[in-house]
Design brief:
Elements (H helix, E strand, L loop, with lengths): L2 H19 L8 E5 L5 H9 L4 E4 L2 H11 L4 E4 L8 H4 L3 E7 L2 H14 L3 E7 L12 H12 L4 E8 L11 H16 L9 E3 L6 H6 L4 E4 L1 H4 L9
Parallel strand pairs: 1-2, 1-8, 2-3, 3-4, 4-5, 5-6, 6-7
The structure holds pyridoxal-5'-phosphate.
Amino acid sequence: MSLIKENIENIEMKIKAACQKSGRKREDVLFLVVSKTIDVPRIKEAVDCGMNSLGENKVQEIMDKYEPMGEGIKWHLIGHLQTNKVKYIIDKVELIHSVESVKLAEEINKRAAAKGITANILLEINIAGEESKFGIRPEECEQMVREISVLPNISIKGLMTVAPFVENSEENRKYFRQMKQLLVDINSKKIDNVNMTELSMGMTGDYEVAIEEGATIVRIGTGVFGARVYPNKN
Ligand SMILES: *Cc1c(COP(=O)(O)O)cnc(C)c1O
């Protein structure tokens, strides 16, 4: 059996166990395979195991892989998105996880309108207040939801975070819990057109804890493909 298949089956078992432990249904959690830096043949191995939702953090990589990977793939943009690149991926992605400004949302809205579609987005939250991380502060979230909710060609599906890198995944439990609470709080404000259901949180090191705390999308790269090899930057 290939290593990728074996990895996927192991992760799948752990996802099931985390769902069971927390009284959640397996089908309420999406296992998103993060395929950044991975070449098409290896990604296809994962797709052959039934994994058709793929996460990329760069617009360019989605564009490069879009045709070769063919139909049936649900692409998710999980990395920082520059306003001037929205036009390249607007009709190629299922969900944009990384919206962190009204300005970016306005550009997404404009480009979605031009294509006659509704763009699904998540707002990226810097839940631990790390300086190195993208995302908005939790306190800014409600106001941003209010401003974006009036844009007709955008649907705010929920929230996303990249939790701190930790040795022990338990250290991130409090942040995942805060994310869930933030989602519940904002939904309780009954803002017109806003009913957020998605929580994109948890990566290779901490997806089980994230699921226990309410993640609906876990983004897993290293766990599937092994350590990433980045090309040399001169
Ligand atoms: C790379 C990446 C992941 C996957 O991280 P792993 O630790 O390899 O599972 C998840 N989310 C985002 C935003 C990423 O950039």
